[in-house]
Specification:
The chain has a single domain, classed as Rossmann fold, CATH 3.40.50. It contains nine helices and ten strands. Helix 7 links the parallel strand 9 and strand 10.
Length: 323
């Protein structure tokens, strides 16, 4: 599908790193709600047939999207914090010819229901339920779990709890540090504001951590699909109390690593503000079963936004799909 989309040899879009001291970056503000021009490969990706469905996990409705034919080997994609399954809409289609693929909305995010409390073990149950409902375990070949940012921690939690059911997990720019240096970097509260128009809401969209990104067509896509229209205006879909309700100590991440026997593959953005060189060196030592350590040039934390096609190429190599 890479060749069909005409993106073989697509040049890397080099970005300048964003310093922690930079002002708040609102990438869509200049567009005033107008969709930016997108390349042909992106249009073909979002037009790839997919089916949306849902399943119930511990009393909450969990939404997920499925691509590809039933019975093929499985891939499970897990989004980051306060994100949603649409972050994978322009990544997944490259794998559809060879895989059955699922991307879900974790509870409290996207179109899934909200909970009184959230934790990684329960998120692992949600991943398993969606993968099972979509038939990803119907093939003799075990599926892979792929997670970005907070979704990488969910992938690790899944590997610790259900590792025997998967080939491996791919962790994309999820900072694992020694327990004494690990801390939650997400804000305590976020979202919940009512905007008078879709354009006004889009203008306030920002990435966390804040950064520049030249691919505005990708940011526009994830932002629009992260909104919902309500009485009186527009709101972001995620639970604004998600982080206060989160019962997960980030210091437990390294303890989880020690319990994992499933191979873990590590990917980072070479210019990531979260997985810097020091963190990256620690992570490579912390995962002795890891078969690949990939730094993607030109990418910051939001790898699929900065370098989507380089991420696709890296995943193709890791999964050994032969496409």
């Amino acid at each position: 599908m890479i060749d069909e989309l005409g993106v073989k040899g697509y040049p890397l879009l080099m970005k300048k790193p964003t310093k922690a001291t930079d002002k708040l970056i609102l990438p869509l503000a200049v567009l005033d709600g107008v969709k930016p021009v997108a390349p042909g490969w992106f249009a073909k990706c979002v037009e790839t047939p997919a089916t949306d469905a849902s399943t119930e996990v511990s009393g909450v409705n969990i939404r997920y999207r499925v691509w590809g034919e039933a019975g093929k080997p499985g891939l499970i994609f897990v989004h980051g914090g306060v994100a949603h399954k649409g972050w994978w809409d322009f990544i997944v289609p490259f794998f559809v010819p060879h895989f059955r693929v699922v991307a879900l909305d974790l509870s409290g995010m996207g179109e899934s229901g909200w909970r009184e409390t959230y934790n990684v073990e329960l998120y692992a149950d949600e991943v398993l339920a969606c993968a099972t409902a979509a038939g990803l375990f119907d093939n003799a070949q075990k599926p892979w779990v792929i997670g970005h940012s907070f979704g990488g921690f969910v992938a690790l939690g899944f590997a610790a709890k259900f590792g025997q059911q998967i080939q491996g997990a791919v962790v994309i720019d999820s900072p694992i540090r020694p327990a004494d240096k690990q801390e939650r970097s997400a804000p305590k509260t976020r979202g919940g504001k009512l905007y008078g128009s879709e354009a006004a809401a889009l203008a306030r969209f920002r990435l966390l951590p804040s950064q520049q990104c030249e691919n505005l067509f990708l940011i526009d896509h994830i932002a629009r699909h992260g909104l919902k229209q309500v009485d009186g205006g527009w709101k972001w879909r995620f639970d604004p109390e998600l982080w206060p309700k989160m019962r997960y100590d980030m210091r437990a991440a390294i303890e989880t690593v020690s319990a994992i026997t499933t191979p873990i593959t590590l990917i980072r953005g070479e210019r990531s503000a979260l997985v810097n060189d020091e963190v990256w060196q620690f992570m490579k030592q912390a995962f002795p079963l890891s078969q690949h350590h990939v730094s993607i040039p030109g990418a910051q934390h939001h790898v699929m936004l900065d370098q989507p096609l380089a991420l696709v190429s890296s995943l193709r190599t890791i999964l050994g799909s032969g496409i």
